[in-house]
Amino acid sequence: MPWNAQDRRRHEGEEAARTLTAAVEAADDEAPADGLEDVEPMPPRGARARVDGRDVVVSWQPVPGPAGPVTYRVVRRTGRAGTAREVAVGELSGTEITDTEAPVGTDARYAVVAVHGGRAVSEPVETSPVTITPEVCDLRVRAGEASVTASWQAPAEAVRVDAWRREGAAPRGPGDGVRVETDGAGFRDRDVRPDAEYFYRVRAVYLTSNGHARASEGLVLRATPGPPPPPVLDLTVSADDGTGVRVHWTRPPRGRVVLRVGPEPSRWEPGAVVGPDEAAAHGPEAVREPEPEPEPEPVPGPEPVREGDPGPGRERAELLLGAGISHVLAVTVAGDRAVVGRSVRIATAPPVGGLRAERFDTSVRLGWTWPDEAAAALVSWTPETPGGPEHTRGPDGSGSARCTRRQYGADGGFEAAMGSDPVRVSVRTVVVTGGEEAVGAPVSVTVPGRAVISYRVETAGLLRRERVVHLVADRACAMPEVSVVYAEGEVQPHSGAQGRVLATLPSRRLDAGERVSVRVRPPRGSGPGWLMCFPAAADDDRAARLRQPSVKELRL
User: Fold this and answer.
1) Angstrom distances, CA of residue 18 to CA of 8, 64, 123, 327
2) Least-confidence region, from 80-89, 170-179, 268-277
3) With left for phi above 0 and alpha for psi between -120 and 50, is residue 255 left, alpha or beta?
4) Single pTM value for the model
5) Which site from 39, 355, 406, 541 is most exposed, i.e. has the minimal number of CB atoms within 10 Å?
6) 403, pLDDT greater than 50
7) Comparing C-alpha atoms, which of 52, 97, 33, 100 is closest to residue 71?
8) 532: closest CA among 474, 455, 446, 452?
């Protein structure tokens, strides 16, 4: 694009300034430097202004290739051409300045010039006009049964405040929706229907220096008139698996139910009407979406009564809660109103992992993996007696104990005497929160009992020199390999290694009351002797133990 005469003169001046600067540097002479201050610089580029709250930020691009120091002078211009007023904003070497004293509700333009050496000034560059239009303050809306009321505080510079209403969506601007009459500080809109959702846009209007009305963008509020929604009074907890809980409630005819989780009980009585912000003070909203309860399968005859059955018209939600004590509060929300319902206290603790058990005669040793939050565990056990595929719990022999995490680490596990019968063992974690304890869901394991195999020794043969050994189990079990041992001496032997094996009964499965027998002939000894039974392997007596008869039968 060809230059005009003014651009050409400015370009020639810049070239002259560069030549003069080079001459000064080469000659080391300061006298020619006076001529640099008279060279007109190029004007700034890209000047623009933007509103930031009640301030205006003006920015521009630096002049290209300045020869010498360059600053930028900014002036605010308001009013019409004949009565325009200019106010200096500032002069700086940077490329951005903030006008903190710009008038409200008035069109303002900003002129930026480049100043070369403090003397030569470029042509001004002007921004597009901007207007500061603050919004109203302290805007509040309240929906009644048949009306919507709003209030606000208008800025002092505003000439009026307009309000527009639209059903189902926010008004985009003037003329979009229905205008609502205001008194400058609020309105009372009675032209509404119950349970309809309305949006209001409230705009502050200002008069510019040109006599034109200029409005703010506006603030939007939502309201739903009608009676307050009913509170949820039957919030219940139906399941707790240690990692999450399931809550149920009856679906209210109006409004939606929000579940809020807090560390403390609700501060309100059920039925209290509060604002949404007040309800949020109880705690954050649960992230799980509610879902309808599944309909029960129809059955012939009268409708059965199910334990804990939520029933029709119910909703449920599964919540993931942190370990400890939580208070879940049901809040029914309709428009700008929230009605507090029932709150339930829920204690959660993560379960133990990898529960394992090992029997040592009448003692049982347990091991598990601790969750990080647990400080202790409750261990309980109940004997079970065989009764087919499942077991029934016996009336006696139950017990419980508390095991701290420190005690578990010191002992390398948990061990307690639980008898020789089959036993059902459960472990529940304990999490302490604010002086309260939350007990987790039980993790259980069934420990098989240790069967007792009794044996008898009978004399046999014509000369009564032989013996018949009979073994019988009190319950079904795996009989270990059993050795019939003869030992001489006055002292009764305590293992098979202290005598001679006369016969061996192979390991086998025994039913309760089933008997196995073996016939042996002890050698003739010069003194007293013993005939006894021992497991062939020293450590093969965990599943069953041998019960010896009277000493009279064992002595030969």
Assistant:
1) 15, 13, 20, 77
2) 80-89
3) left
4) 0.49
5) 406
6) yes
7) 97
8) 455
**Whole-number Å distance between alpha carbons of 132 and 157:** 10
> Residue holding tokens 């049982």?
364
430-450 b/e (C-beta count within 10 Å ≥ 16 → b): bbbbeeeebbbbbbebebbbb
At which residue do the structure tokens 């109006």 appear? 254
DSSP secondary structure letter of residue 194: T
Most confidently predicted of 226-240, 242-256, 313-327, 414-428? 414-428
Q: Is 265 in contact with 312 (CB distance < 8 Å)?
A: no
Residue with tokens 């059993």: 482
Q: Which residue has the higher pLDDT, 395 or 341?
A: 341
Token digits for 116?
Answer: 């070369």
What are the respective helix, strand and coil percentages of the chain, to the nearest 5?
Answer: 10, 50, 45
* Burial of residue 14 (number of CB atoms within 10 Å: 0-12, 13-18, 19+): buried
Chain segment 414-436, per-residue pLDDT in tens: 999 988 788 999 999 998 877 77
Burial of 552 (0-12, 13-18, 19+ CB in 10 A): exposed
If pLDDT is split at 50, 70 and 90, which confidence band does 28 have? low
Contact yes or no for 247/319 (Cβ under 8 A)? yes
**Which amino acid belongs to residue 8?**
R
CA distance 103 to 107: 8
- Model confidence pLDDT, tens digit, residues 459-469: 998 888 899 99
DSSP assignments along 433-470, one per residue: ETTEEEE---EEEEEPP-EEEEEEEEEESTTS-EEEEE
Q: How many CA atoms lie within 13 A of 488 on its CB side?
A: 6
Q: What does the angle CA 327 – CA 329 – CA 335 come to, to the nearest 5 degrees?
A: 155
Distance CA 290, CA 331 (A): 13
Q: Which residue has tokens 């003070």?
A: 281
Q: Cβ distance 483 to 477 under 8 Å? A: no
CA–CA dist 497, 501 (Å, integer): 9
Residue 186 identity (one-letter amino acid): G
Strands (E), 69-197: 70-78, 85-92, 96-99, 108-116, 120-121, 125-126, 137-143, 148-153, 160-167, 178-180, 186-189
Q: How far apart are CA 140 and CA 134, in angstroms?
A: 17
pLDDT at 302: 47
* DSSP category for residue 481: P
Residues 6 or more apart in contact with residue 452 via CB below 8 angstroms: 420, 473, 474, 475, 544, 545, 547
Q: Which residue do the tokens 């010069």 mark? A: 526
Strands 544-547 and 451-460: parallel
Kind plus residue range of the DSSP H or E element containing 15: helix 5-27
